[in-house]
Design goal:
It comes from Paenibacillus germinis. This is AraC family transcriptional regulator. Keywords: DNA-binding, Membrane, Transcription, Transcription regulation, Transmembrane, Transmembrane helix. The chain is α+β, with helices and mostly antiparallel strands and about 775 residues long. It has five domains: about 120 residues, Beta-Lactamase, CATH 3.30.450; about 80 residues, Beta-Lactamase (2-Layer Sandwich); about 170 residues, Alpha-Beta Plaits; about 110 residues; about 100 residues, Homeodomain-like (Arc Repressor Mutant, subunit A, Orthogonal Bundle), CATH 1.10.10. The chain contains 29 helices and 16 strands. It has a six-stranded antiparallel β-sheet with strand order 3-2-1-6-5-4, with helices on both faces. Strands 8-7-11-10-9 form a five-stranded antiparallel β-sheet. The chain has a five-stranded mixed β-sheet with strand order 13-14-12-15-16. The longest helix is centred in the N-terminal third of the chain and has 66 residues. The radius of gyration is 48 Å and the shape is elongated.
Length: about 775
């Protein structure tokens, strides 16, 4: 600690540092808020106490409500499970007539098991009306002799309520005349003609014990009222304060309010149970709440003093930790340098940043050295026509990116080395890579010596292309210079490699979009060495009546057209047909050339259909077995495109869509079979999606589209149909059937009634009657 203070002291006062500024700011930030918070807390705490207590009471009431509601719900569920069990699901009337003793012993056994499993139950009994017996495991069998009591019990038996909770005493039932709650249910449950009534009694002492655990203030009261405002139980007497229930109904939107009872002001916090709509009410004397604020002033002063001391220490410690990354950065950048006493860490970092920027510039220069390779790849793609569909602005942007001047006179020549005619060559046939490397170096050195601009391109076919660009104003005198350059280059390469070298030279054009055409001219010039002889510079003449040398078949459109057919994209395929027709517009004077181009496009379409598995007879039909003959009969480009659409595009797209639909149906049938085999498990859409290799969202949409129902609706339908079959053909209980079709008992009853209109028990009874 002493060393830490010593280091901090040096950084604060020996020289100008960021650490000193941070400590000053941290102390200011630490002291001012603590003082402000201390004063504000004193003014604010008194008003907050009631709000905090109210929130605490809400949590307490929620705990009380949750405890009571869960107890009642558990007892009710246990009672339903007992009534849906084997004994009560059997024919009790027949059992009573055939085995009288077994009937009553079975009832006593079931009631004892229910009471032993629910310690909160004070009594459980079943009333058998035809003999007037009230059977209880505690009191045994008691006969109800009073006519009034029997009449009230018969009214309850004839009511529409299958099961319900009753609060308060039940005067017509012996032993049930005390406060508490009672569950009354028909026996058997959901039967058309019940044979008795089930009574489950819970004394109010259970609720009072739960409430007493949460009483925190002297004089605090708790009340529980049912939905009609009657008292269920309380910790403050046997009556509800007059007007309390009505006031709660008026102030339903308020979390708390003040109520005067027996000359005492209470803060009232009510909540309503979502289970049975009971009102849980907490009443805390206001004077008990105000007593908490008496010591706030002294506590506030003490807290301010302690927080100031802690704030100063934490500010120093925290600033030291925050400063540590800066300190580490400076130490990392120092490299043996000493910090200037007049310069803080920022100045030192700025200085080092300049040095790092210089290093970065060097690295950038190294990156720029790789630019020739990148420019070569771009130039190769440009020669091959990959950017013909770019707009003028886009193409100019690409030229700027790769440092290629625009608006220049362009020409292309292609260099090739033929195989050696004798053994005097410096290189062998398998040295093609070395030959290309030597070619590029010779061309580069010659361009530099002649002060000419161009890009040398490896064509990846053992040939090298040179794209030259020069000022258009010097085209006439430079044309001769280009020819001389090509001849000189040919001689240099031939002498060095000792191989026959042929160079094909194209014409000139100022438009960058004509570059693929110039490249084709140069390639055709090189190929013509077969006729005119190699080992020379062959210049494109530019003449001839046919002039097919300038025509370039739109291969990129054909490729895009084939791809659209493979995907079944009708709109894109028709757009490519329109683009193809547009590319033919420059050759309207050469109908044979247009016809030849459409022959080639037809071949591509037929090839695509064959690869997709579509028979050629399905394209043009038996009447048009010769599609090439059909093209010869058509006289306009518009009619050609229409023929292609009807005879090629439409059937291929329809076939692709049908194939996709068939695949989708196969996938859905796979899911349906999986559901029918595994419906009794906990199935999910994600499991089926993993089986099909699809996303759950896409499988859901595909299932709905194919089956006209959603995944969960189809699964529910299968489960309901299977449960109906089990209800008709077996004697299994409802809970066993629910388990066999993949449901819990409560959920099964709810889903079955929702889809069939009656509960499983009612359906089995109806089916038996029919």
């Amino acid at each position: 600690m002493r060393r830490w203070f010593k280091d901090s002291w040096k950084r604060l006062f020996q020289r100008k540092t960021i650490f000193r500024n941070m400590v000053t700011l941290s102390l200011f930030i630490a002291v001012i808020p603590v003082v402000a918070v201390g004063i504000g807390s004193y003014l604010f705490s008194a008003s907050v106490v009631q709000s905090e207590v109210n929130q605490s009471n809400v949590r307490i009431l929620n705990n009380v409500s949750s405890s009571i509601d869960s107890t009642l719900d558990r007892i009710q569920n246990n009672a339903i499970q007992m009534l849906l069990g084997t004994f009560f699901s059997s024919n009790l009337t027949e059992l009573k007539s055939t085995n009288y003793t077994g009937f009553y012993s079975g009832i006593s056994r079931e009631l004892s098991a229910l009471q032993n499993g629910n310690k909160e139950v004070s009594d459980v009994a079943i009333y058998v009306p035809d003999e007037g017996y009230l059977i209880s495991p505690i009191y045994g069998g008691r006969r109800i002799t009073e006519d009034k009591e029997r009449e009230e019990l018969l009214k309850e038996l004839a009511s529409d309520n299958q099961i319900r909770w009753v609060t308060g005493p039940i005067p017509y039932l012996p032993g049930y005349n005390l406060n508490g709650v009672t569950l009354i249910s028909k026996v058997p449950l959901l039967a058309k003609n019940p044979t008795g009534l089930l009574f489950i009694r819970i004394d109010e002492t259970l609720f009072q014990n739960i409430m007493s655990r949460f009483v925190s203030y002297s004089g605090e009261l708790m009340f529980i009222l049912n939905a009609t405002g009657n008292l269920v139980t309380s910790s403050g007497g046997n009556s509800v304060p007059e007007g309390l229930f009505e006031l709660i109904a008026q102030k339903r939107s308020e979390q708390r309010f003040t109520f005067t009872f027996q000359d005492t002001d209470y803060m009232v916090t009510p909540i309503t149970s979502s289970y049975n709509k009971w009102q849980y009410i907490n009443m805390v004397p206001v004077n008990e709440l105000n007593a908490k604020s008496k010591g706030i002033a002294m506590i506030t002063l003490t807290i301010i003093a302690v927080c100031l001391v802690l704030g100063i220490l934490i500010a120093l410690w925290g600033t030291r930790r925050v400063y540590r990354p800066i300190e580490n950065l400076v130490a990392h950048l120092k490299g043996g340098q000493v910090l200037d006493s007049e310069t803080d860490e920022v100045g030192f970092v700025r200085k080092r940043w300049g040095e790092l920027s210089s290093t970065a510039n060097q690295l950038q220069q190294q990156l720029s050295d790789q630019l020739p390779l990148v420019r070569e790849i771009f130039a190769l793609q440009l020669l091959q026509g990959r950017f013909l569909h770019y707009s003028g602005d886009q193409l100019e942007g690409m030229l700027r990116r790769y440092n290629v001047p625009a608006g220049q006179e362009n020409s292309v020549f292609v260099i090739t080395c033929d195989p050696p005619q004798d053994s005097g060559s410096r290189f062998q046939e398998n040295d093609r890579d070395l030959i290309v490397f030597a070619l590029k170096n010779i061309v580069g050195e010659l361009l530099q010596s002649q002060e000419m601009e161009g890009i040398i391109i490896n064509l990846l076919n053992d040939q090298v292309a040179v794209w030259l660009f020069r000022d258009p104003e010097q085209t006439d005198e430079r044309q001769t210079e280009v020819k001389l350059f090509a001849e000189r280059l040919r001689m240099l390469v031939s002498d060095y490699l000792r191989l026959p070298v042929t160079i094909g030279l194209s014409g000139q054009s100022e438009s960058i979009t004509d570059l693929p055409e110039l490249y084709e001219e140069a390639v055709l010039s090189v190929r013509s060495r077969i006729i005119v002889g190699g080992n020379q510079v062959i210049t494109h003449s530019g003449g001839g009546g046919a002039s097919e040398l300038h025509y370039r078949y739109p291969l990129e459109i054909e490729t895009h057209f084939e791809h659209s057919l493979q995907l079944g994209d009708q709109e894109e395929a028709e757009r490519m047909l329109a683009e193809f027709a547009k590319s033919m517009s420059d050759n309207v004077q050469k109908p044979e050339l247009i016809q030849m181009s459409y022959y080639r496009l037809l071949t591509a379409a037929i090839r695509t259909a064959y690869l997709l598995g579509l028979d050629s007879a399905q394209l043009s039909g038996e009447a048009e077995a010769d599609p090439y003959g059909q093209i010869r009969k058509i006289s306009t480009i518009r009619e050609l495109n229409e023929w292609f659409k009807v005879q090629m595009v439409d059937p291929i797209v329809a076939y692709v869509h049908g194939k996709q639909h068939q695949e989708h149906e196969q996938l859905i049938q796979k899911v349906v079979r999986y559901i029918e085999d595994n419906y009794h498990f906990d199935l999910s859409l994600d499991q089926c999606a993993q089986i099909c290799g699809l996303s759950s969202h896409y499988l859901s949409k595909l299932f709905k589209k194919t089956m006209d129902v959603s995944f969960i609706e189809y699964l529910t339908k299968i489960r309901i149909e299977r449960s109906i079959e089990l209800l008709r053909t077996t004697d299994l209980s409802v809970s066993d059937i629910a388990e066999r079709v993949g449901y819990q008992t409560k959920n099964f009853i709810r889903v079955f009634k929702k889809h069939i209109g009656v509960t499983p028990g009612q359906y089995r009874g109806t089916d038996s009657d029919s």
